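Q: Can someone sanity-check these two? First one:
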Amino acid sequence: MSTENIAAPRSPYLSHRKRNRFNIEKWGWIYMRASGVLLVVLIFGHLFYNLIFPGSVSVLDWAFVAGKFADPFWIVWDVLLLWLALIHGANGMRTLINDYAHGRFRSVLLVALAAATIVLLVLGTLVLTTFDPCLGETDNAELIARCAAQ
């Protein structure tokens, strides 16, 4: 058996047009790994700050959340958490749809997934970035001092 006619595994067999095409599956795979690592850090930081740091879950109320969102650091943290988690989940759903749905039904599901993802990203980002901690009444002295300084 001769192997003279078998091309090398990475030989330039494909045309130039196909080699330079954007590979969404490759970039989706890379995104899932990178976002997964970042999400572990973001989620455990979120859980630590909201559950361990205050000392008790009963402390979590509107004043706690308002005090947290008075600091731009936590707004950026939660927006990043929202975007990474939602796109990570949508990418996983896209993979499942591609594996199990076929034809026109697959296209409808992918469009519905994209629409739901975009709507949730926009609404979640608007809630996090337009939240005004000084609108409500509270007896939290730290929050009252921050709002008075504005």
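And here is the second, same format, sequence then tokens:
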Amino acid sequence: MLKVELCIGCTACANVCPFDAIGVADDSKRIIHFSPENCGNCSFECNEVCPTRAIERKPDKITLEFEYAYCLECGRKMMRTKKEAEYYAQQLLKMGEKVEFAFICDECKMKKISSVSDKYEGYLI
């Protein structure tokens, strides 16, 4: 069973499926196709790896489309969906971290980190 409303399009399930029953296509949107007819005798790895617990036992036959997130700093398409970014933002919020990092690409994060470290002037002994 697939709880569509919980799926964030992260593709973790597809990455662990030993039978390629979960396919992913990336274009202007991320498309995930669940093909339960391809499921074999497995340990439901897709269930275990899903961060939102959207999959229970064998998934339904369905195709889902997800919009990509775009970096708030540079505007480039990120390799995560909007729903993924929103999920990560909630996780960051729970940890007391900066929520905006969920919506910034890795390159822009590195620039932010290095600009802070460039301003540091160590103490001379």
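A (reply): Looked at the second one. Residues 4-118 form one domain. Residues 12 and 112 are 28 Å apart (CA to CA).
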